[in-house]
Amino acid sequence: MAKEPKNTLTIYRELRDNVGFKNHHGFYRQLRFCIRHDLVELEGVSKKWGIPTKMYRLTEKGKSLLQLLGNEEKSCNTLY
Question: Could you say which architecture CATH assigns to the domain 6-79?
Answer without folding.
Answer: Orthogonal Bundle (1.10)
